[in-house]
Design brief:
It contains 6 helices and 9 strands, in the order αββββαββαβαβαβα. With 270 residues, it is an alpha/beta fold. A 5-stranded mixed β-barrel has the order 5-8-7-6-9, surrounded by 4 helices.
Length: 270
């Protein structure tokens, strides 16, 4: 895998002069932040060696090099998921590539279901922890000592300083946000009422199908992470409704401008 990572990095370096210090992964219906980026080079995933291709509606499948908040950034407009049939190593491959391209921080967004009874549809949750409920871990297998330790510490998966600054930025802009723990499941089904209850019982505030693998791999490589989740539906007794993927995309898109304000300002100030 290390040879593939280096091959991909060499290819991307041949396509752009941008040396990114910030990595961004944008989730379902949350690609609007891209409009704030002064794009310098845009590369479709299908042109990148060893890269998976996004197959999900709401994920456009482009790697964007440019400037945002005075920083050089690399942004994934569309991410990969375990439920698409990719391995956890394939899902997280782009994070490895970003690290070797030079990123020093990773910013992640996702759409999720809320299991905290205090949450409402459209709630913006800054993640302060996660629970890995995927059937595996992207670090299983031979450790890449060149990238990180065999047993990485996960006691601080999400950077406290960036969380504090994110909360401050939200307050300055009168944006209501919550802090919470995210449980990562495989999907592609949305959860049953019993599964929502289970996720809540073990300590999560929201549940989704991404983010956890990417953050594990980022922390393996000592990259500080900030993640933000938009609650697009509720898995709370008495509030569970039939939800389609289009419903998720619509709610995420509606709240996306607020998330963009927080992320853009945080990137500029951190």
């Amino acid at each position: 895998m290390l040879a593939q990572i280096k091959e991909t990095v060499a290819y991307l370096q041949s396509r752009t002069q941008v040396s990114p210090t910030v990595g961004i992964i944008l989730g379902t219906g949350l690609g609007g932040l891209v409009n704030e980026i002064n794009a310098i080079d845009v590369i479709p995933y299908e042109e990148i060696p060893n890269f998976p291709v996004s197959t999900v509606e709401g994920h456009s499948g482009k790697l964007i090099f440019g400037e945002l908040g005075g920083k050089h950034v690399i942004a994934m407009q569309g991410r990969f998921h375990y439920y698409e049939g990719y391995s956890l190593q394939e899902v997280t491959f782009p994070v490895r590539v970003m690290k070797l391209l030079g990123i020093e921080r990773l910013f992640v967004s996702n759409a999720s279901g809320g299991v905290n009874p205090a949450f409402e549809v459209g709630e913006i949750m800054i993640m302060n922890d996660h629970i890995n409920l995927f059937p595996g871990n992207p670090l299983i297998g031979k450790n890449l000592d060149e990238l990180g330790p065999r047993f990485p510490d996960m006691s601080v998966a999400y950077d406290p300083a960036m969380i504090e600054l994110g909360l401050q930025i939200a307050k300055e802009n009168n944006i209501k946000v919550s802090l919470g723990c995210y449980a990562g499941l495989t999907g592609p089904t949305l959860e049953t009422p019993a599964e929502y209850g289970y996720v809540r019982a073990i300590g999560a505030d929201a549940v989704g199908m991404s983010t956890v693998p990417e953050v594990i791999v980022a922390r393996h490589m000592q990259i500080p992470c900030f993640a933000i989740s938009i609650i697009t539906d509720l898995g709370v007794p008495g509030k569970i409704q039939n939800v389609t993927h289009q419903d998720v995309v619509e709610v995420a898109s509606r709240q996306e401008p607020k998330m963009t304000i927080i992320m853009k300002e945080l990137i500029a100030r951190s």
